[in-house]
Structures are given as C-alpha cells and as structure tokens.
Amino acid sequence: MSQLRFIVFKKIMLILVLMMSGCSSMYSHKKPGTYTYPSRAWALNVDGDVSVSFDVDSRGKTENIHILSEHPEYLFSRGVINDVSEWKFPAGHPQHHLIYHASFRKPGIKYTN
C-alpha cells in the first residue's frame, strides 16, 4: 500500500511542477531589446532586419506596436511584435514613438555576391 501512495505522490508532484512552470512563464517579461529568431527564418537560413515603433504606458508595458520596415517582408514581423509585446520597462516613465531596430543574423552562413 505504501508503494501505491508513493506513486500517487510522485504523479501529484509532477503535475504541480508542470502547472507552476507554465504559470511562471505566462507572467514573465522579456528584457527590452531582446528578440527571438523566428524558427521558419532559421530553418530557411534567412537573415533579416526589422524596425519597430511602440509606446510604453505608465505601468511599463508596451502598446501601439507597429512595424516600420522589414526585409525580407512577412518573415520576421510577427515574432518581433510578439517579443516587443512581452517587454517590460520601468513603471512611471511613459514614452511615445520609441523606435527599435532588430537585425537577425544566423552564425555560420557564408555570403557570396
């Protein structure tokens, strides 16, 4: 009987750990200026550049996120918007029309003209 309790206890602990790790990532914020290389662009060995504009509200959260330019088009913008939406700035310092530039360069790619 004690072995059955131990198995049940292990399963309950595993479920709790999984639930806690999922919850903590839901509320985490990325550091401003950090971007995730889009998996599709990575798989295709494509580099790119994106310029993005946004505002920061009084709570330090980003809003009004707009892509100003992107090369190549339609490959990086969704990821940049998602990343910027997770950034957290110091509260109490709202800012408007901030512009950041992201350059995605995959290491090890050889370029030829």
Automatic annotation (TrEMBL):
Source domain of life: Bacteria
Major localization class: membrane
Stretches assigned to the TonB C-terminal domain: 22-113
Pfam families found in the cross-reference section: TonB_C
Membrane topology value: Single-pass membrane protein
Keywords on record: Cell inner membrane, Cell membrane, Membrane, Protein transport, Signal-anchor, Transmembrane, Transport
Subcellular location: Cell inner membrane
InterPro entries: TonB (IPR003538), TonB_C (IPR037682)
Biological role: Interacts with outer membrane receptor proteins that carry out high-affinity binding and energy dependent uptake into the periplasmic space of specific substrates. It could act to transduce energy from the cytoplasmic membrane to specific energy-requiring processes in the outer membrane, resulting in the release into the periplasm of ligands bound by these outer membrane proteins.
Family: Belongs to the TonB family.
Protein name as catalogued: Protein TonB
Upper classification of the organism: Bacteria, Pseudomonadati, Pseudomonadota, Gammaproteobacteria, Enterobacterales
